[in-house]
Amino acid sequence: MALARIPDDLSVIVLTYNRPQVVAMVAALPAGLEVIVTDDGTLPSLARQLPAHVQYVRHDHDGNRASTCRNAGAQRATRPKLLFLDDDVVPHPLCFATHSLALEMYAASLGLLVQKRWHPYTDDRMLFYVHEEQVLWNWCWSGNLAVRRSAFEAVGGFDGATFDGGAGFEDIDLGRRLWLAKQPLHLNRLALAHHPSPHTAENPPPAVLRNQARYQAKWGEA
């Protein structure tokens, strides 16, 4: 696969929640991708603003249900490889091809979310990857995460029954279940997405703390 080519086997699923910025974000994605925006918010006019080629999945419920929404987007996708992105990231031009190539060999391709464009090894957030690679599911972040459809479906997708209503940890849970199912994970240092918002690990908001507690209870961790 030539890395300059946009893969025709990749569906891009973008989660949004009351954020009109998603319109510009998906409009900037390369042509040739299947793009699905999945939305749990209260902005019905959003669908009219999206580019014509973008599929739009909106739920008749206002709530922070990231797992349910991403699963719905995956169900709408028609291609064998799924790439989950957040609505506030800017993927590197090679992000799509490098994810697709990795999924030829691995069940999941864990992309990097960098605050600096494009210098992952001088980025404070990326120092985690350098030192903690041995527990790969901890870096399964759905802001930039690609998964083979077959592996995603085999483990039941994201766990909405546990994690809907909070924020975060549903993606790490997915990675852990893939690993336990002996689905190989790959830390993809070439699949970069710029994520300018501050990292919340040091001062997480209540919604993140809720899902952290749910994750710890599910896996019996302190």
Pick out its properties.
222 residues, alpha/beta, Spore Coat Polysaccharide Biosynthesis Protein SpsA, Chain A, 8-stranded mixed sheet, 9 helices, 31% helix, 21% strand
What do these coordinates show?
The protein is an alpha/beta fold and 222 residues long. The protein has a single domain, classed as Spore Coat Polysaccharide Biosynthesis Protein SpsA, Chain A, CATH 3.90.550.10. The protein is 31% helix and 21% strand. It has an eight-stranded mixed β-sheet with strand order 3-2-1-4-7-6-8-5, sandwiched between helices.
Briefly, what is this?
By secondary structure, this protein is of the alpha/beta class. 31% of the residues lie in helices and 21% in strands. It starts with 9 loop residues before the first strand and ends with a helix.
What is the strand and helix layout of this fold?
Layout lengths: L9 E7 L5 H6 L6 E6 L6 H4 L5 E4 L7 H11 L4 E6 L3 E2 L3 H8 L5 E7 L12 H5 L12 E5 H6 L5 H4 L6 H11 L4 E10 L11 H14 L3
Parallel strand pairs: 1-2, 1-4, 2-3, 6-8
Antiparallel strand pairs: 4-7, 5-8, 6-7
